[in-house]
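Handout, page 2. Input:
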Amino acid sequence: MLRVSNLKAAYGKIEALHGISFHVEKGEIVTLIGANGAGKSTALKALMRLPPPESPTVTGGDITFNDVSILGMPAHRIVHDLKMTLVPEGRHIFGNLTVMENLQLASWSRKGEDTDKEIQHVFDLFPRLAERAKQRSDTLSGGEQQMLAVGRALMTKCTVLLLDEPSMGLAPLIMYDMFRTLKRLNTEGLTIVVVEQNAHLALKVADRGYVLDTGKIVAEGPAEELLHKPEIKAAYLGG
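Output:
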């Protein structure tokens, strides 16, 4: 479904990705793990074709979606046409808007469609958001804001969901609930790519994983296999 081939990307003159390759099959959960600064977030930004300077410039390789190159496609077409959506690191919700307004804004390009079903699905996944539907989103807790960021992405009717550090800043209970929700979405047919520093948690829910180190993929394989590789455990899983 999604294939990255020998991808190189740079911020200005500094190359951040040195020719990485990975693929994602329909219906999978795939995780990219690695230390801070390994290039994980850069890979997702490159996939979404987000423009510089906050995002990298692709300098080599290719990204294909269902065997069609998307290098020339802008981010809004990727969301609208390909149904691939990013939940960015740091959430980036609209704090001056209510929970409901954030969800409605995400479906703006689908004007004329009935979005009540998607909103109800979000509220079924995250009952706290239903309770706070009329509340300004900058008054939510960190965990609730992360729920809203995921819910907002789902309002695009995405078939591929990219998540950048979804556990960052969350209390353990909320963090585990979030990953259980991602697993539920996957069982409903959603393909998911997760970038995560909490390697143990990510590998527990993923089908396959890739390990990035300073812009290169240094290991890959079934998630269960990576969990038990001594070198992976020592470097990323606390021994």
